[in-house]
Amino acid sequence: MGSAKNSSNADRKARIEEMRRAERARERRSRILTIGASVVVVVGLVVGGVILVNSQSDDDASTAADSKPTGDAGISGSFTTGSDGVKTWKGKLGQTHVTKAVKYPMEPPVGGNHDQVWMNCNGDVYTEAINSMNAVHSLEHGAVWVTYTSKAKKADVDALAAKVKQTPYTLMSPDEKQAAPIMLSAWGHQRTVTGASDPNVDKFFAQYVQGKQTPEPGAACTNGLSK
């Protein structure tokens, strides 16, 4: 009887030990699977992060590249200054309509390849900088473009704005990139003036508003871009 009981206890202990061994084996497998899954997740996150960073870098580089002037302004030559103080461009000024941004060799530009849409120039006064490619198209139609920087006196800016508003085929806008406080531009011609009362303002308007330099005389200065 005692022998049978001892045998039963031994069998029970053996089964319990076997169950413990099986449980430990399952725990080891579970740990291995958990670690493996964690490694896969971490690797995936790292790879995904690298791809995202590279993608953003490529996008930033592409955006930066797209923002740079890539088109041809179709300009060659240089300015010569006459005895009247007006600078005249001697050389080529392209007239092709282009879609890519171009960099002009003068500021403001007095011609060259430009956008197919002109800035409205029927005495239009813009209080913010405008796209030169549209303004050049206005010059092609015979407009005079008055530009100024923050160094120009407010009284002069106001007086010039009043003059522009009364003069068809003119437009006005700020341009902080130009060299002088106030400049007047027409197709192929440009000059600086000291202020609104400078007699050269009236002379420039009289000569170049729809002047002989106009590549497309009579072309519209309305129904274009009004910002």
What does this structure look like?
- The protein has 227 residues and is an alpha/beta fold.
- It folds into 2 domains: 1-68; 75-208, 3-Layer(aba) Sandwich (Glutaredoxin), CATH 3.40.30.
- It contains 4 helices and 7 strands; from the N terminus they run αβββαβαβββα.
- The protein has helices spanning 2-67, 132-140, 154-165, 199-208; strands spanning 75-81, 87-93, 122-125, 144-148, 170-174, 182-186, 189-192.
- Strands 1-2-7-6-4-5-3 form a 7-stranded mixed beta sheet.
- It is elongated and about 120 Å long.
List its salient traits:
about 230 residues, alpha/beta, Glutaredoxin, 2 domains, seven-stranded mixed beta sheet, 4 helices, 7 strands
Topology:
Elements (H helix, E strand, L loop, with lengths): L1 H66 L7 E7 L5 E7 L28 E4 L6 H9 L3 E5 L5 H12 L4 E5 L7 E5 L2 E4 L6 H10 L19
Enumerate the spans where pLDDT stays under 50 for 5 or more consecutive residues.
39-43, 45-68
Shape-level CATH architecture of the largest domain: 3-Layer(aba) Sandwich
* Secondary-structure element pattern, one letter each: HEEEHEHEEEH
The strand order across the widest sheet is 1-2-7-6-4-5-3
CA radius of gyration: 38 Å
* CATH fold naming of the largest domain: Glutaredoxin
Short structural description:
This protein is of the alpha/beta class. It contains four helices and seven strands, in the order H-E-E-E-H-E-H-E-E-E-H. It has a seven-stranded mixed β-sheet with strand order 1-2-7-6-4-5-3.
